[in-house]
Amino acid sequence: MFNRGIRMLGVAAVAMSLIVSGCSGNTSTPAPASSGATPSQPGAAAYKDKLVIGSALGDPQGSWDPIDTFVVAWGMVASNIFDGLVDRGTDLKIKPGLATEWKYTDDKTLEFKLRQGVKFHNGEPFNADSVVFTFDRLLGPEGEKSPQRSNYTSIDKVVKVDDYTVDFKLKETDPVLITKLAGYGGMIVPPKYIKEVGDAAFDVKPVGTGPYKVTAYTKDSQVVLEAYPDYWGEKAKTKNVVVRFIPEDATRIAEFQTGAIDIMQTVPVAQVKSLESDTNYKVIKVGGPGATALRFDVSKAPVDKLEVRQAIAYAIDTQTIIDTILGGNAKRISSFQGDISFGNNPSQQPFAYDPAKAKDLITKAGATGAKLDLFFSSKSTASKEIGQAIASYLKAVGLEVVLNPVDPQALSSQLIPQAKAGQMHLFGWGGWTLDFDNTAFLLYTKGQMWNPSFNDPKTNELLVKERGTNDQKVREQAFQELTARLRETMPDVPLYQSMAVWGTSAKVDGFTAPPDDRMRLSSVVVGK
Amino acid sequence: MTRKRISLKRLVTNVPALIGLLLVLLAVGSAVFAAHLAPHDPVAAELRLRLDPPGWDPASKAKYLLGADAVGRDMLTRIIYGSRISLMIGIASTAISMVLGVTLGLLSGYFGGWIESIVMRVADVQLAFPFILLALVIMAIFGGGLTKLILILGLTGWVSYARLVRSQVLSVRELDFVQAARSLGAKDLGIIWRHILPNVISSVIVLSTLQVATNILTEAGLTFLGLGVDPSIPSWGGMLADGRNYITNAWWVATFPGFAIMLTVLGVNLLGDWLRDELDPQLRV
After folding, report:
1. Would residue A430 count as lying in a domain?
2. Quick one: pLDDT at residue A482?
3. Averaged over B137-147, what is the pLDDT?
4. Nearest to A389 among B47, B226, B246 (CB)
5. Average pLDDT over all residues of chain A
6. Residue of B133, B47, B231 whose CA lies nearest to A384
7. Distance from the A304 Cα atom to the nearest Cα atom in chain B, whole angstroms
8. How far is A250 from chain B (nearest CA, A)?
9. Quick check: is A346 in a domain?
10. Size of interface A-B (CB pairs under 8 A)
């Protein structure tokens, strides 16, 4: 799930509208290198054969297998290793990937024509069998524990028609299916290779059809990629790529400034100005679907009371947090999604900053002086500062906050799922499908991994309604009711949508900052 | 053996010792009177004053003497409150190690035999274990926090006291007045308490001052690594860690807590040096 990317806040955030972000992306992104100077041609000596990237998201929890993951840390690298049937690049538009065309032959059958002559990195041919294998694996016993599976449950089975044609038989309509096939779980994997080496070996030495293949991987340290010479599409221009996992802001910026890394994900807000004024670097800001919220575990006192949750929403001056801590690189939201997401209701207003009202509500609820635990990522400067600001705002209205900075991986994979993340936690969400369905289903229905305790029959009902049809009007109506309902029931306080801030050395050319953090490295070159 | 006496007269004429005393008094004073001295609330964040420069800078909006941190809190206030954490951890943990170490040192030095073997072997094992690793493991299992930090520092610091005291007891217990007390029928514990302890306590005091300083530094280091106290409690190590991100554009955030740590540790060390000179008969002219 692509989109389920949980990135614990992290970023300096923000989001302008798609249009604005498009502009800012374009103005600061260099034009692609002129064709006369690409490394594959004479004159290639002008470029280095190695590109080093500093990832702020860290290790993808030890596995490169698409069905094992849900984190954006995976997608930012693996989007260069694997391909799906369809592809969504940095412009967020769907285009053909391993399938060349597709159409609904009837209401519940989706037919794909596959690309011919494609080979996996190990030489194994790509064909209908690979597609059938991939989805049998995801939907069968193998994928039972997969965090990806719940996104693809509308598929009943995948049937081979001939070597280069497959039919997706659907159990129910799924309005977001095509987009989701460009997501993590829809990445096509090699049947023979997996059967030969086994799952554990595939986790650390993955094989796909993408422009780069993995040559070495050290957990929590780095992954080394090499250009795949037989790639079916645009071949990679830089031969070697090293992605280093450096979640600590201060360490990453130090490595960047000493020239040890060429492209840096998430420039801390404090450094943006000084990098922008230095001609050795480029700073690229891009708005995306990522959003951040203050989430509640509604089973724990005192946030089990609606009044207390409302009070917390009124007590926090989110706009000031955006203007100061986030350097203006973010935008307020009224539901847990960005404004380019289908299902967002632009006329719904976020909670106003009203400390007097907050104090009233807390007094009424009898919660004055209550102690609350707030969990957040210890690796991100922004989340640490936002945590402290929230503590101060809540103290002003009579609530004591205990700050718990924790390892972001522990937070997302253990503490939240086990309901051990106190009353509140700061939570980032990738929103990759650009459709509220995925976010709402995974965060607000009972039993989902990152929903500790929220359960509301009306919310469930609206989700069933929205999922059951391809009619976008009906869906939009359901989403409007849903966002209003979530504002009433308050499983979280939606804070802001994020803007990713990337830094590159001035010598880097051809890099487009990905709005969804899924980097595409084929066209990137580094000058000598 | 003669009792050594500390002379206040020698203290005021000794410039480094006097500086040390003043620095320590300054730190202790701000810890005790923090609520009265501090101009603002240490937790109240005024985001609009984020990274406001120190008061003498014309660009300063709030005229906070030492500027504001990344969420707009007054640096001076937080440094004053931070002295509480530093001193509390430094003194409390040292007290724990001192009581534990001196007791074990006295017992093993006086009685020898199996007590000595066990205590000294445990001490060796403990010394062989890297402190930071131990702290990391304990914090990872039980979580961080003020009390745990004090206990960890306290329970790992006893070794140097035990070794020091034991070696001194070995020579003191053979001295004539101890033998005399014993032949007059005094009980072992009475001898230890009345005759031996007073003769080793001066070195223990010197060691303690040095250890207070070390523990203040260790606390700052652990909090800097994110293993120490909760970030909502102002502590010098935590402030230093926060300031690291802003060292290029807001130097005051890391610099002032750094000075506070440096001056306090310097003060305690100067005082400790002087005490050692005072209490060591061989150095007395």
Report:
1. yes
2. 95
3. 78
4. B47
5. 88
6. B231
7. 24
8. 6
9. yes
10. 65
- Give yes or no for residue A48 having a pLDDT over 50: yes
Chain B closest-CA separation from residue A388 CA (Å):
7
Helix ranges (H only) for A43-185 are 72-78, 128-139, 177-180
3-class DSSP state of B31:
helix
Whether B232 and chain A come into contact, CB under 8 Å, resolves to yes
Name residue A214's beta-bridge partners.
A225
- Provide, as residue numbers in chain B, all residues whose Cβ is less than 8 Å from the Cβ of A395: 43-44
Question: Are the beta carbons of B246 and A270 separated by less than 8 Å?
Answer: yes
| Closest by Cβ to B245, choosing from A249, A396, A404 | A249
* Residue in the block written with tokens 């690189």: A329
* Residues A93, A186 share a domain: yes
Q: Which domain holds residue A155?
A: 59-245
Q: How many Å lie between the alpha carbon of B64 and the closest alpha carbon of chain A? A: 18
Q: Read off the DSSP letter of residue B49.
A: G
Residue entry with tokens 């984020």: B50
Classify residue A507: in a domain, yes or no: no
Per residue in A345-362, pLDDT tens?
999 999 999 999 999 999
Number of domains present in the structure of chain A: 2
Q: How far is CA A521 from CA A204, A321, A511, A513, in A?
A: 21, 34, 7, 10
Does B72 touch chain A if contact means CB atoms closer than 8 Å? yes
How does DSSP assign B124-166, residue by residue? HHHHHS-HHHHHHHHHHHH---HHHHHHHHHHHSHHHHHHHHH
Taking contacts as CB-CB distances below 8 angstroms, the residues of chain B near A389 are 45, 47, 71
Give yes or no for residue A309 having a pLDDT over 70: yes
Residue found under tokens 């609520």: B35
Nearest CA in chain A to B230: A403
What residues of A are in the B interface, CB distance below 8 Å?
249-250, 268, 270-271, 273-274, 317, 320-321, 323-325, 378, 381, 384-385, 387-389, 391-393, 395-396, 401-405
| pTM attached to this predicted model | 0.80
Query: What are the structural domain ranges in chain B?
Result: 3-38+71-283
Same domain, A354 and A222: no
Which residues are within 8 A (CB) of A311 and not within 5 positions of it... i.e. 6 or more apart? A357, A358, A359, A360, A361, A362, A365, A367, A397, A399
User: Where is B205: in which H helix or E strand?
Assistant: helix B197-224
Return the CA Rg of chain A: 23
ipTM score of complex: 0.77
Same domain, A194 and A326: no
Q: How wide is the angle at C-alpha B259 spanned by C-alphas B257 and B261, nearest 5°?
A: 70
- For B3-38+71-283, the fitting CATH number among 3.90.76.10, 1.20.140.10, 2.60.40.2470, 1.10.3720.10 is 1.10.3720.10
The owner of tokens 């939907």 is: A139
A231 plus A293 within the same structural domain? no
**Which neighbouring-strand residues pair with A285?**
A501
A396/B44 CB distance under 8 A: yes
From B71, B226, B248, residue closest to A388, measured CB to CB? B71
